[in-house]
């Protein structure tokens, strides 16, 4: 009995020491998320890269390189999952930092297309795929009591970073050229995200349970909810039916938002005869709404049922896309696109806590890396809807298909909620 009491006291002391560090760790991870948000500045870099690599004749090839970047960033956590598991979060982020930072530096100095694909396409793509998902998964274990809010904050900073980075890069390029701009960006990434890797340390065993109990109101016992799928590894997770239902909900739920985020400029120009400059304002609106969605839905996830939240952000695009099918007025279009972007942002803050809830906290870093593929799937499907199901300025068919996909996402979200509800074991 005495030994057990001493062990409990030692564990409590370890947990309290870690408590004092975690806000500092969060601050560094937010800085890291902001820097890796450089990945969203392609619209600023595209034309300078085209000019550097040969002019208009290489436009399609240069754009293809960005597609490689997006795909590799989404697939890296899954493809290299076994490798990064052995490395651990600290060394995974450090390796990602080297790939990401050097990728920018080298791509800004080369006129060779193959080296450009290696440095920018694979380097920055795999690098960001190592950094961002690892930070998200790690912070879910550092803040088991505030997963939604913390995930939303990191995702919001990551997604909204381009609001600051884009004008900065554009100014550096205009004043000193692409090579200088990407040298500065690369060095900032190496220094700042490298510092994040140094802050990462193992989370004490049992810390999650300790924080859940500590979060209970004084004088009450915290309700503990466990699914029938506790602490599954990546290999075990992908063998469950729950995994496939959940990832379809995430991927299809993100699709409408991905279509809006990637195509809002074209939609406004083609549907309402706007200039590129005028349409850029609406790009900023949807980007802002996406960023706010990560904060808002993250907070909602922490304070209300996370599966109801998932159902809402999957279901609202059915309404917004449906309204766009029957009406083409400018105010309604802007409102519907904005709400869709708000819901899209919500997935950035809900996937992490739901992954931890469904498959356990122990392996959430690697499991989130697999779930991160949902953004890649949405990135492949969403933009293609607007391209293949539109005619001139008429996007009615694209909106209709997006609404149908959102219906499927909602059905999957409801199935997840039903399975979780039926498998909960509630204990006081």
Share of residues in strands:
under 5%
Order of helices and strands: HHHHHHHHHEHHHHHHHHE
Spatially, the strands of the biggest sheet line up as: 1-2
CATH level 4 superfamily of the largest domain: MFS general substrate transporter like domains
Radius of gyration: 22 Å
* Structural class estimated from helices and strands: mainly alpha
How many H/I helical runs? 17
The gross shape turns out to be: globular
CATH hierarchy, class of the largest domain:
Mainly Alpha
- Number of discrete domains: 2
Mean pLDDT: 84
Fraction of residues in H or I helices: over 70%
List keywords for this structure.
428 residues, Growth Hormone, Chain: A, 2 domains, two-stranded antiparallel ribbon, 2 strands
Description:
- The protein is an all-alpha fold.
- The chain has 2 domains: 2-207, MFS general substrate transporter like domains (Growth Hormone, Chain: A); 223-427, Growth Hormone, Chain: A (Up-down Bundle).
- 82% of the residues lie in helices and 1% in strands.
- It contains 17 helices and 2 strands.
- The chain has a two-stranded antiparallel sheet with strand order 1-2.
- Helix 4 (81-107) runs antiparallel to helix 8 (178-199) and helix 12 (276-303) runs parallel beside helix 14.
- The longest helix has 35 residues, at 2-36.
- The radius of gyration is 22 Å and the shape is globular.
- Residues 219-228 have low confidence and may be disordered.
């Amino acid at each position: 009995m005495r030994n057990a009491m001493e062990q409990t006291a030692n564990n409590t002391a370890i947990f309290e020491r870690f408590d004092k560090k975690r806000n500092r760790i969060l601050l560094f991870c937010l800085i890291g998320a902001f820097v890796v948000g450089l990945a969203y500045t392609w619209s600023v870099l595209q034309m300078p890269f085209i000019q550097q690599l040969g002019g208009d004749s290489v436009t399609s090839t240069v754009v293809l390189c960005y597609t490689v970047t997006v795909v590799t960033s989404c697939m890296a956590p899954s493809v290299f999952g076994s490798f990064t598991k052995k490395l651990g979060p600290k060394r995974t982020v450090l390796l990602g930092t080297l790939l990401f930072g050097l990728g920018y530096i080298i791509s800004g100095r080369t006129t060779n297309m193959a080296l450009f694909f290696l440095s920018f396409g694979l380097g920055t793509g795999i690098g960001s795929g190592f950094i961002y998902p690892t930070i998200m998964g790690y912070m879910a274990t550092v803040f088991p009591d505030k997963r939604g809010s913390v995930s939303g904050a990191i995702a919001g900073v990551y997604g909204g970073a381009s609001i600051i980075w884009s004008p900065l890069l554009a100014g550096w390029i205009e004043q000193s050229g692409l090579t200088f701009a990407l040298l500065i960006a690369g060095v900032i990434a190496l220094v700042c995200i490298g510092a994040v890797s140094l802050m990462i340390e193992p989370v004490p065993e049992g810390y999650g349970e300790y924080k859940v109990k500590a979060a209970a109101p004084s004088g009450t016992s915290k309700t503990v909810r466990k699914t029938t799928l506790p602490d599954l590894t990546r290999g075990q997770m992908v063998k469950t039916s729950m995994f496939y239902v959940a990832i379809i909900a995430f991927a299809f739920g993100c699709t409408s938002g991905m279509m809006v985020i990637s195509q809002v400029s074209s939609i406004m120009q083609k549907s309402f005869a706007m200039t590129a400059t005028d349409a850029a304002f609406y790009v900023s609106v949807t980007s802002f709404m996406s960023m706010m969605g990560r904060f808002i839905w993250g907070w909602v996830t922490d304070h209300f049922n996370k599966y109801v939240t998932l159902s809402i952000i999957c279901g609202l695009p059915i309404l917004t896309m449906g309204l766009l099918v029957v009406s083409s007025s400018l105010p309604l279009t802007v409102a519907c696109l904005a709400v869709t972007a708000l819901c899209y942002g919500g997935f950035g803050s809900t996937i992490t806590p739901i992954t931890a809830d469904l498959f356990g906290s122990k392996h959430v870093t690697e499991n989130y890396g697999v779930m991160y593929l949902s953004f890649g799937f949405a990135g492949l499907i969403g933009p293609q809807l607007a391209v293949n199901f539109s005619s001139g300025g008429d996007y009615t068919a694209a909106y209709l298909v997006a609404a149908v996909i959102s219906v499927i996402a909602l059905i999957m979200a409801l199935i997840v909620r039903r399975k979780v509800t039926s498998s909960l074991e509630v204990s006081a």
